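Sample 1 of the test manifest.
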Amino acid sequence: MEAEVAVVGGGILGISIAWGLQRMGRDVVVMDEGDFALRASRGNFGLVWVQGKGYGMPDYTRWTRRSASLWPEFAEELEDATGIKLELSQPGGVEFCLSDKESEETVLQLEQIRQTLGGDYPFELIQHDALKKMIPEIGPDVIGATYCPEDGHVNPLYLLRALFTRFTANGGRVVNGSRVKQIEKSDHGFRINSDNEIHAGKVVLCAGLGNRELGNMVGLRVPVEPSRGQLLICERVVPFLKYPSVQIRQVGEGAIQIGDSKENTGLNDSTTPNMIARIARRAARIYPLLSHLRTIRTWAALRVMSPDGFPIYQESDTCPGAFVVTCHSGITLAAVHALALARWIGGEVQPANLESFSGKRFEV
Amino acid sequence: MASVLKFKRRFNSDATQVTLQFESRSVQAFNGETVAAALLANGIDFTRTTPVSGSARAPYCMMGTCFECLMEIDHVPNRQACMVQVADGMVIRRMHGARDVEQGE
């Protein structure tokens, strides 16, 4: 099989980049490992989130905000083309504070981000009484919340489906159930060995935690590590939660999704009763009425984290034409990946300050 | 409703008969049956409408995994009728769409 570009990884990053390249007229094949893969794109929370992003790297704050602002047109194009509703909503988001310490830490961090951006960074701290007017369902333990008007959420599974639907309807090829074993330079680009042999002019590594091993094959060092997040979802209820938060959101079809744990447990992606109970208890302190609801399902997924938590976008020095794309926030960044980063990989326009995201920042 | 019985009980049960209130009518059932089984045996053709499309649904997997049989049982919404055993005088209603979060249990 031959293609102009081979994208290794059939998650949200891979298909966002693949569709973006296809939009530019490139012939693209996506290679998906199959359901043995870790599947971070099937287990994530679904936020399109700006608040707190880029603490320590202003270029990442700008990049995130650019994606959030591109999301409406990105979603509209996909929805019009596929008829799949993505349930995008960007009403602003809240980060709840249950103690003065939490509140001080959150505000300090957001103020520092604002400072590094020369004041251009929207957020406000809303104290309990004012917050209660905005969100009447909060409990007495909530002392306040920070609000950022650029935050939102989306249905990440419908997003994945819409991107694949659009990509394949336009003639894009997807090879499923085929783990890439070897990538070698060839006369015209790369020879990629899996169950099929694929020849491609360029190769883009979008394989999440698998990028570590794949990167070595093309001279790219990709020091990503897993971070486990556990989630639970409650029965569907009549929509009442307007504002998503990092811990709790109501999905488009009414279910309440709760999460935001972080654990270092290697590749173990199982749930634990203790953590699920802790997540549920905190959620019930934020919204006491949730304690009436039944939990329908729990699961865990592994975040793909670089040492500083920011994305790695890099073209190989030793194997030009080989790229790595990895990040933690594949949903938030889907719009900017498809509409801007793909143009860099396709050889058209390089986004401003792209070098900030090179993995060379870890080589000291 | 109940014009054609699509399901029938395999055995003549020796179990005690009980009476359920389903919507505005009385339905006979046997102790030990689940609510879903009793309603199917009585020819009840749908047990809820979905919160997403509003279409009518009936019990499907009968083992607690598909959540198609959600009903309001003894005033508690969104219960799985295939996981709840019948009791005399039980009040059962179809679940229409999503429940309201304000309702306690």
